[in-house]
Design brief:
The complex is a heterodimer. By secondary structure, chain A is an alpha/beta fold. Chain A has 11 helices and 13 strands. Among the domains of chain B are: 169 residues, FAD/NAD(P)-binding domain; 145 residues, FAD/NAD(P)-binding domain, CATH 3.50.50. Chain B is globular. The chains are: A alpha/beta, B alpha/beta.
């Protein structure tokens, strides 16, 4: 927690994006999370991702529930829309907001408690509904706000700060999302922005529900020996499937010559491109069973599979398409169409009689 | 290569003002003392390094201000010099803290030639050690050029007297009206050491047609001699239309003095464009405020007379072109600018006609200047030392003071039969500034105040007397605002690489993006791949050793650091800490290695 304000002074060689904004223009309030919290790094990565995507801050909506993680939305893009909801209910709120206005860019930020305990059902149904949003789980394996009890993502055998070992089996959000049919599933690490930022960008551009499970260490309660969600453990056990580049639409795509052996490209619905590069990897991020087997295999070996693990851009039908809703955001519909009157209601009701 | 912060030079260089100051004045610390209302403490801290805070607080050439980090942040440096004056003006009675005559005399006799800033500094440093110090002054007043070349509207004589007397009162013998006419006979007097601090007292001559025609001897003056004449009361007025040739700080003093002696139309003529002017920007500003006209690109050609009376000067109007760093001029036209008096302020020369050339003192063939060692100030005669403008030509007061300190060290070494080349080392102290949760021992929050403007006496009152001080000093409100502009660059961001867990908290919070965790590399290349590229090569980058977890390195670009302490606030392991750096400067009377300072290493500059 920091009591002083961040000085408004900027570095003169700070770059500007297409909107003429610097990263500092995407900042929010001062974080009141613990010093060294992984969540603050995720905030910084989000600022970078939104800035690099040239998203006008007022065209984004930041949604969250309750918990340390859910405070994150206050710490970036202070000019954006936002809703800090009831514990675990962020997915419903986002579904509703998205139903009303599909033109905003939705980012939901949740944690392992908010998503895997109290809000698990909400998460599952948001995946099934395929709400177009980036769903970030800041996963640290503990309930930090209540002094570090094990959360539903804590691994069997990992210990609390006082040395007690966890006995209950963990819920892995990645395996869960793969099972439920999510079309964008990734895992990353708050301490590796090189990997995290392109994944966030790709997730924001995905046509449908994009889930990113981010190992985001709790420095106060889960960064010790015996933790499997600490900075040190994650760095030592992280296995990246294939690094990606996110190539936005407006950038010219340079042809990779020579060492382009294992290069796979996936074109996103807006024309931007995700490139998997790892010449020697036989990992196939577009095959769901393959992804599941690989992630499960890593878990069994005590490793943490990271990267963009599964992506199905073609086979995805997001919520609005599925429900054949109106294209115009409700706020822009003329009142006569939004509320066609009692006569129209009568006719509708008649259909059910 | 990891940065070695145990070398005092690294952190010293981060303190831009202190690095820029020839005498290494501890600027941030004295500004903090002013902020706390501890004016006497602030004054005494200043006095330790620059000896004349009241004088320099009005007249210093301020090498610290162009160096000041704040200038890189919001365009205007902290008004360091004028804050120094605040400390001097408000210090109160400090007599008991000033140097006292030594309890025991050490039996060594030292003669100092000239009673200017360099000699006075030598006296200040040596007298407390028990040296019998004799100053030989050719005039009947002390202070040297500080007195007769700086007009009293910039430096009131009371301020000068107080600080000069503080030194003389330690039992220094000052012989007035004692010009040294022969070095040989002075050497014969058997002093243990002699210091030449006689300045560069000869104004440069301008040899042009008509220089000595007509009434030239009455109306064409040499700048520093004319200023001396005004000071000693020999000159009380000047003709209405005056041209000043040259555009250094002496020219500024001349034009402003002329305005006070009855001149109504004063023009300063420069050969070159404004960016090549030698005068400090603020002195030019002050002159222009007094309605002095400054004319660029005019090269003097001849003096013009009518009936034996000077009526103007002829100039060539130049156009300058610059190619490959070489400036060349072409003459556009010639032009006569009317005037009835001219003051030549085109530089100063040394004058050593009183040093015999056959007594073992080697002189440089080209410039006819004594051969003096840059570090020790020693001439080829082992017990003869030079300093101030007398050593290597005209500089400024603060350099003269530093020369005095260094010469005093040499003299002390020499008189103890120690090698003068064996210079005492600089040291440093580094103490954490953390005093509690979110609490630091300095004002770490960035303050967006603008630089405070010095209040000036109104023009009519100024011109009424040459003795009316122009600068009125800062009001308490201005002082309170200005002190908060200081970024406390001496409170260093100190990094312990072994503690870092690479959580990125510091990198993410830094408002000016000066921190990066990156794979190691050569400095030139590393500078290009930082959060914000480190393009200012005059500023260092800090590079840690390989970090424990990923073997990457922590890199800090010192250039824009606000010393706000947010990196340390956000660091979960206290790998970053804010530590107060104190450069321990050696003096003849105090050596850092004897004071228990850590990390003593030599600073070679």
């Amino acid at each position: 927690m920091t009591s002083i304000a961040k000085p408004p002074v900027k570095h003169p060689s700070l770059q500007k994006n297409a909107l003429g904004l610097t990263k500092r223009d995407y900042e929010g309030a001062m974080s009141t999370l613990c010093a060294g919290c992984g969540h603050d790094s995720v905030t910084a990565a989000l600022i970078t991702a939104f800035w690099e995507l040239d998203v006008p801050p007022h065209r984004a909506a930041k949604m969250s529930g309750i918990g340390c993680s859910s405070k994150t939305t206050a710490y970036f893009m202070k000019q954006s829309h936002g809703f800090n909801s009831v514990h675990g209910r962020m997915p419903s709120l986002t579904s509703g907001a998205n139903a009303a206005n599909r033109e905003l860019m939705y980012i939901g930020i949740s944690g392992d408690g908010d998503s895997l305990s109290i809000g698990l059902g909400q998460l599952c149904h948001a995946i099934r509904r395929n709400v177009q949003m980036l769903y970030v789980i800041e996963n640290n394996g503990v309930y930090g706000l209540t002094k570090g009890q094990f959360s539903a993502s804590a691994d069997v055998g990992s210990t609390s700060k006082r040395g007690e070992a966890n006995q209950q089996a963990p819920i892995d959000p990645v395996l869960l999302a793969l099972t439920l049919g999510a079309t964008f599933v990734a895992r990353s690490f708050s301490g590796d922005k090189t990997q995290l930022v392109p994944i966030l960008k790709a997730g924001l551009r995905h046509n449908g529900f994009a889930l990113i499970d981010i190992i985001s260490p709790c420095v106060s309660f889960n960064d010790h020996e015996g933790s499997t969600k600490s900075y040190k453990f994650t760095r030592e056990h992280e296995v990246e499937v294939a690094p990606i580049d996110f190539v936005p639409l407006r950038k010219e795509i340079a042809s990779e010559s020579g060492a382009a052996g294992g290069l796979t490209s996936v074109t996103m619905h807006d024309g931007s491109i995700v490139r998997f590069r790892q010449p020697n990897s036989d990992y196939n991020a577009t095959n769901r069973s393959n992804a599941y087997t690989h992630v499960k295999g890593c878990i069994d070996k005590g490793e943490v599979a990271t990267g963009l693990l599964y992506l199905d851009e073609g086979g995805t039908t997001e919520m609005h398409t599925m429900n054949r809703t109106v294209k115009t955001p409700l706020v822009d519909l003329p009142f006569s169409e939004l509320c066609p009157g009692s006569k129209a209601l009568e006719e509708l009701m008649a259909e059910y009689r | 290569m990891p940065t070695n912060v145990a070398d005092p030079r690294y952190y010293h260089k981060v303190v831009d003002c202190q690095w820029g100051c020839p005498a290494h004045t501890n600027v941030p610390e004295y500004i903090r003392l002013i902020a706390q209302g501890k004016y006497a403490e602030s004054y005494l801290l200043n006095r330790e390094s620059n000896v004349f805070p009241g004088i320099l607080g009005r007249t210093c050439d301020r090498p610290c201000e162009p160096a000041c980090r704040r200038g890189r942040i919001d365009g205007k440096p902290v008004a360091i010099c004028r804050l120094k004056r605040v400390a001097a003006d408000l210090k109160g009675d400090i007599d008991e803290f000033l140097p006292k005559p030594p309890a025991v005399e050490n039996g060594k006799r030292v003669a100092l030639i000239g009673c200017g800033p360099s000699s006075l500094t030598v006296a200040n440093d040596l007298r407390p050690l028990g040296y019998a110090v004799t100053i030989l002054e050719k005039r009947d007043q002390s202070g040297g050029l500080m007195r007769w070349n700086i007009p009293s509207f910039r430096l009131p004589p009371e301020v000068l007297d107080e600080e000069v007397n503080a030194i003389l009162d330690t039992g220094v013998e000052l012989r007035y009206n004692s010009p040294v006419t022969s070095m040989q006979s002075l050497l014969a007097e058997g002093y243990d050491a002699i210091f030449v601090g006689s300045g560069a007292p000869k104004g440069k001559e301008l040899v042009l047609p008509g220089r000595h025609d007509g009434n030239a001897s009455d109306v064409i003056h040499i700048g520093i001699e004319w200023l001396g004449g005004v000071h000693f009361g020999h000159i009380e007025k000047i003709e209405p239309t005056v041209l000043i040739i040259g555009v250094g700080n002496t020219a500024m003093d001349c034009c402003r003095t002329a305005k006070r002696l009855g001149a109504t139309d004063v023009k300063v003529i420069a050969r070159r464009g404004r960016k090549h002017f030698k005068a400090s920007a603020w002195e030019l500003e002050d002159a222009e405020e007094e309605l002095v006209e400054i004319i660029e690109h005019h090269a003097p050609k001849s003096f013009v007379y009518a009936n034996g009376k000077l009526v103007g000067m002829e100039f060539e109007v130049l156009e300058w072109t610059e190619q490959n760093g070489q400036a060349t001029s072409t003459v556009l036209e010639t032009k006569v600018i009317p005037c009835d008096a001219v003051i030549l302020a085109i530089g100063q020369d040394n004058a050593f006609e009183w040093i015999e050339r056959d007594i073992g003192i080697e002189f440089d063939k080209k410039w006819d200047m004594p051969v003096v060692d840059k570090a020790t100030h020693q001439s080829t005669l082992k017990h003869l030392f030079f300093g101030g403008d007398a050593a290597w030509g005209p500089a400024n007061i603060i350099w003269a003071v530093e020369h005095g300190h260094q010469a005093a060290i040499s003299i002390h070494q020499h008189c103890q039969s120690l090698p003068v080349t064996d210079r005492p080392a600089y040291g440093m102290n580094l103490v954490s500034a953390k005093v509690g949760m979110h609490a630091w021992s300095y004002s770490n929050d960035y303050n967006p105040s603008q630089r405070q403007k010095m209040n000036h006496e109104e023009l009519v009152k100024r011109f009424a007397s040459v003795h009316t001080e122009v600068e009125l000093g800062f009001t308490p409100e201005q002082t309170a605002r200005e002190v908060e502009r200081c970024l406390n660059c001496d409170i260093q961001t100190h990094f312990e690489d072994t503690l870092c867990i690479e959580c990125d908290a510091c990198v993410d919070i830094c408002p000016v993006n000066c921190l990066t965790i990156a794979p190691a590399g050569e400095e030139d290349e590393l500078r290009t791949r930082l959060m914000a590229p480190a393009l200012n090569l005059s500023q260092e980058i800090y590079v840690s050793t390989a970090l424990p977890q990923t073997k990457r390195v922590m890199v800090k670009d010192e250039d824009m650091c606000l010393h706000c302490g947010l990196c340390a606030e956000r660091c979960p392991t206290a790998a970053w800490d804010m530590r107060k750096f104190e450069l321990v400067v050696p003096y003849a009377f105090a050596k850092p290695e004897e004071s228990g300072a850590s990390g003593t290493l030599r600073i070679n500059r």
